[in-house]
């Protein structure tokens, strides 16, 4: 059997990210992005091998954009596409793993939409369009939440009245599961430890950030909760705040729930603390130049991350390594250094040269002698989605 090709689709409200994954190739034959979908400025960018191209697709909706990218994907796959893997943000309690899409699955994704009102409807638009365009192809949904369905109840329940969980699904779900899963498996490979007998702390640090405790290949706790707002400081998201902040701001400033949601999701985090940017690269430069807001944002980010990792350690019987991933985790030597300075009780020590070497896609172990393992592992959510899709095709 020749190496199979999976088209991976990640449909947002106004964008579609896509990649063609060939099971025998380390790099993607094709990857790209449709932006500003549904507007007069809609545009499709893709990279086929080393060649980058763009095409204006004014007014194209998700389906029209997918129609345009189909021939490009078919050509890149040599006319042989074997399946499509869709990223879906929220699977609620319905899904403990990836699944082949049928009517029942579509209904369950729709039923979970209330839990992710910005994401699931956009994911569904992509699935509907792809199913209409490729009716004969197996399609698989891969959920950000599914990997965390192995959390024990004492980790996933909030201390609120039971009927809110039983009747209204109020519990912790966790996100970034595809990434935490991928990097922990990859770390086991890199260290030659068996997946089913290894324990990891993972820190996925991108625009969204979360930590996870992984025991023998299963998530036991994670920092995000009912929604992707809980936990760490992120690019524009606050992470944890006192739950009474809502009523306080309502009482004192007269803010509505929508205003408070917007502030916590879009105007907080690194952006809110620094007053400058949500982009860590900008903040690192400003910090070196002495910008007080950038310095504070960096310090709060690292301290809160360390605190979260220390609390995640409660879920582990032993620690085989701490893994950094995501745009910040893979690239920021300064964040890795500062975070571990707050975790002295764990005896973490970094090898400065190894830490400096790990950037721009270079991974590896970065601890000094005598320290527990610390690894930088570039994440690859597209590859994990393709691997899940292939596993379901084999089944
Ligand atoms: P992601 O969402 O995984 O693409 O990560 C985005 C975040 O990674 C942004 O905050 C970027 O500033 C950060 N990032 C990307 N490259 C670097 C770098 N070379 N150094 C520091 N931060 C980086």
UniProtKB/TrEMBL annotation:
It catalyses: acetate + ATP = acetyl phosphate + ADP. The record marks 176, 237 as: Transition state stabilizer. GO terms for biological process: acetate metabolic process; acetyl-CoA biosynthetic process. It comes from the Bacteria. InterPro entries: Ac/propionate_kinase (IPR004372), Aliphatic_acid_kin_short-chain (IPR000890), Aliphatic_acid_kinase_CS (IPR023865), ATPase_NBD (IPR043129). Substrate binds at residue 87. It is found in: Cytoplasm. Catalyzes the formation of acetyl phosphate from acetate and ATP. Can also catalyze the reverse reaction. This is Acetate kinase. It comes from Stutzerimonas xanthomarina DSM 18231. The lineage of its organism: Bacteria, Pseudomonadati, Pseudomonadota, Gammaproteobacteria, Pseudomonadales.
């Amino acid at each position: 059997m020749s190496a199979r090709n999976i088209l991976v689709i990640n449909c947002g409200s106004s964008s579609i990210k896509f990649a063609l994954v060939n099971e025998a190739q380390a790099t993607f034959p094709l990857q790209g992005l449709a932006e500003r979908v549904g507007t007069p400025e809609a545009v499709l960018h893709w990279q086929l091998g080393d060649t980058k191209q763009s095409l204006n697709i004014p007014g194209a909706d998700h389906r029209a954009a997918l129609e345009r990218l189909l021939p490009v994907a078919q050509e890149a796959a040599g006319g042989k596409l074997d399946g499509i893997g869709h990223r879906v943000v929220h699977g609620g309690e319905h899904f403990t793993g990836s699944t082949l899409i049928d009517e029942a699955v579509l209904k369950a994704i729709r039923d979970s939409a209330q839990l992710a009102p910005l994401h699931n409807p956009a994911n569904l638009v992509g699935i509907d369009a792809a199913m209409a365009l490729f009716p004969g192809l197996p399609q698989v949904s891969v959920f950000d939440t599914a990997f965390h369905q192995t959390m024990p109840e004492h980790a996933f329940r909030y201390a609120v009245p039971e009927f809110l969980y039983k009747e209204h699904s109020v519990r912790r779900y966790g996100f970034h599961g595809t990434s935490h899963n991928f990097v922990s498996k990859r770390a086991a490979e890199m260290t030659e430890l068996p997946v089913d007998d290894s324990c990891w702390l993972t820190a996925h640090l991108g625009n969204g950030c979360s930590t996870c405790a992984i025991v023998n290949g299963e998530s036991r706790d994670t920092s995000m909760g009912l929604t992707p707002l809980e936990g760490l400081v992120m690019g524009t998201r606050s992470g944890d705040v006192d739950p009474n902040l809502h009523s306080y701001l309502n009482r004192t400033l007269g803010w509505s729930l929508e205003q408070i949601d917007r502030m916590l999701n879009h105007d907080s985090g690194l952006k809110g603390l620094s007053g400058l940017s949500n982009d860590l690269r900008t903040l690192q430069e400003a910090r070196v130049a002495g910008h007080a807001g950038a310095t504070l944002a960096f310090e709060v980010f690292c301290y809160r991350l360390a605190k979260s990792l220390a609390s995640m350690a409660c879920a582990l019987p032993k620690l085989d390594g701490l893994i950094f991933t995501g745009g910040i985790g893979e690239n920021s030597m300064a964040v890795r250094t500062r975070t571990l300075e707050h975790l002295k009780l764990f005896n973490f020590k970094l090898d400065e040269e190894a830490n400096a070497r790990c950037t721009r896609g270079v991974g590896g172990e970065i601890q000094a002698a005598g320290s527990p393992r610390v690894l930088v592992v570039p994440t690859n959510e597209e590859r994990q989605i393709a691997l899940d899709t292939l596993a379901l095709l084999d089944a």
